[in-house]
Design a protein that fits this description.
The complex is a heterodimer of chains A (112) and B (111). With 112 residues, chain A is mostly beta strands. Chain A has strands at residues 5-7, 10-13, 19-24, 31-37, 43-50, 53-56, 65-68, 75-79, 88-95, 102-103, 107-111. Helices cover 0% and strands 50% of the residues of chain A. Chain B has no helices and 11 strands. In chain B, the strands form 2 sheets. In chain B, strands 2, 4, 5, 9, 10 and 11 form a 6-stranded mixed β-sheet that branches. Chain B starts with a strand and ends with a strand. The chains are: A mainly beta (112), B mainly beta (111).
């Protein structure tokens, strides 16, 4: 089966700009997760979708981050306006059940 | 919520030696403990996992042990090879879609 895909692989933007990251989960996986990893730190949970519904968004840093999953398929994560501290690698993962998660390749975001 | 601590942050071993990475968790309700390996430029991939109803699981050169009383679990890699070099992440979950990860261990296997 095709794996989780993410787009773009890299994004370099200036502070104050907007960036939208996209994740396509494995087909049939209702659970979709967004994570962020800052250099040397843990893979930090951002939020979790079950189909199109936000199940848990307790990890979202602030209201500059907006995640959507219209139709319960792919998901987008928008950062507006971006700040320097938003830099990091954003991972998406999907799962069919509540345990094994399959990760995408990540989007490396650099905010200058 | 769950808090996962992982040690060491970096680990360097000679090819053929063993490597051990240790994690502790805070939520006694956690019952699923996966380990992911992330090679340079690639996505994290599940390499082994263990559930709370067993104390040890082995798959060729890798093994995981779980001590529920002490709330810690470990990854053991024997006969290390250069291709084992990667960042390894542990994680813990109660099974309610609340998986939390450690900070990662960068393992370097020197030939």
């Amino acid at each position: 089966e095709a794996g989780v895909t993410q787009f773009p692989s890299h994004s370099v933007i200036e502070k104050g700009q907007t960036v939208t990251l996209r994740c396509d989960p494995i087909s049939g996986h209702d659970n979709l997760y967004w994570y962020r990893r800052v250099m040397g730190k843990e893979i930090k949970f951002l939020l979790h979708f079950v189909k199109e519904s936000k199940q848990d968004e307790s990890g979202m840093p602030n209201n500059r981050f907006l995640a959507e999953r219209t139709g319960g398929t792919y998901s987008t994560l928008k950062v507006q306006p971006a700040e320097l501290e938003d830099s990091g690698v954003y991972f998406c993962a999907s799962s069919r059940t509540h345990d094994t998660q399959y990760f995408g390749p990540g989007t490396r975001l650099t905010v200058l | 919520g769950e808090n996962v601590e992982q040690h060491p942050s970096t680990l360097s071993v000679q090819e053929g030696d063993s490597a051990v990475i240790k994690c502790t968790y805070s939520d006694s309700a956690s019952n699923y403990f996966p380990w992911y390996k992330q090679e340079l430029g690639k996505r994290p991939q599940l390499i082994i996992d263990i559930r709370s109803n067993v104390g040890e699981k082995k798959d060729q050169r890798i093994a995981v042990t779980l001590n529920k009383t002490a709330k810690h679990f470990s990854l053991h890699i024997t006969e290390t090879q250069p291709e084992d070099s990667a960042v390894y992440f542990c994680a813990a979950s109660t099974g309610r879609n609340d998986m939390r990860f450690g900070a990662g261990t960068r393992l370097t296997v020197k030939p």
